[in-house]
Design a protein that fits this description.
Layout: H1 3-18, H2 23-34, H3 40-61, H4 63-73, H5 80-101, H6 103-109, H7 114-133, H8 143-155, H9 163-173, H10 178-202, H11 213-239, H12 243-265
Helix pairs in contact: 1-2, 1-3, 1-11, 2-7, 3-10, 3-11, 4-5, 5-8, 5-10, 7-9, 7-12, 8-9, 9-10, 10-11
């Protein structure tokens, strides 16, 4: 992977991790468009690096919230912060189970399966459209809602289903406050990302060569900076009910992806 491609893919990851358009789907599309043909282990390393970058950008944007949560938790009292942390943990369970039980099957889907990406982007578009039409409330995420949102996060492990789009849309459709839904969505994924990174590193699944250092560093910085921008922007977009624009975008890109596959099959 050269530096330019790494920067482009890093920007794609940074933007699409938070914007409801599927980071995994766009990374797969980006690799096809750029002709990126890294072997699976190299591709996995790059994916881990850019996901780590976006996790850090989430921590930076929500640093005050995270500090408040940590303070509340270490008071060892059943306060609002502890309750919120418990909901985040509950929401992680479905994705963690799917990731552990079906890891090989999931990895097999991330090999340029453009038809699947296109179909899942259309599903994302439908979710975003209906979520945007929902009325805003002051309702907080409940424990039951945390489980349902967690299930939507597990489904979003498919390339083309936007994680932020699926979790925010599910939360909003359940009647939760839009801003709180976005906050919960972004915070609930951070432990999972670090858990996945730790598992990959400890499992010895990654291969690294010194020649990869510069492209990986470039991709990391690009993803981190783009993530800072996209995370902040997305919170405002959800609050102002602007998700329909992303629904249209996902629909168009999904149809283009499907059209591309059909065209290639008939060449």
């Amino acid at each position: 992977m050269d530096v330019i491609n790494a920067i482009i893919l890093g920007i794609i990851q940074g933007l699409t991790e938070f914007l409801p358009v599927s980071s995994s789907g766009h990374l797969e599309l980006g690799k096809v468009i750029l002709g990126e043909s890294s072997v699976p282990k190299e591709s996995l390393l790059f994916t881990v690096v850019v996901h780590f970058a976006t996790a850090l950008s989430t921590i930076v944007v929500f640093r005050k919230d995270i500090l408040e949560l940590l303070k509340g938790i270490f008071q060892f009292a059943w306060n609002e912060e502890s309750k919120f942390a418990a909901k985040v943990i509950i929401s992680m369970i479905p994705a963690a189970l799917i990731g552990i039980l079906y890891e090989d099957q999931l990895e097999a889907l991330f090999k340029g399966n453009i038809l699947l990406v296109g179909c899942m982007l259309i599903i994302t578009a439908i979710l975003l459209y209906f979520a945007d039409k929902a009325k805003n409330t002051n309702k907080n995420v409940s424990y039951v809602h945390a489980i349902v949102i967690g299930i939507s996060q597990a489904i979003a492990m498919l390339p083309g289903i936007s994680r932020s789009g699926a979790t925010i849309s599910t939360s909003v459709l359940l009647g939760n406050d839009k801003t709180k839904a976005a906050r919960f969505s972004f915070l609930m994924v951070v432990p999972l990302i670090f858990g996945k990174i730790g598992k990959v590193i400890l499992g010895g699944e990654l291969t690294f060569e010194s020649s990869q250092m510069i492209p990986l560093s470039a991709g990391f910085l690009a993803a981190f900076i783009a993530g800072l921008f996209a995370c902040t922007w997305m919170i405002n977009l959800v609050k102002k009910s602007k998700l329909t624009y992303f629904a249209i975008y996902c629909l168009v890109i999904g149809l283009i992806a499907i059209g591309y596959v059909v065209y290639q099959n008939y060449l």
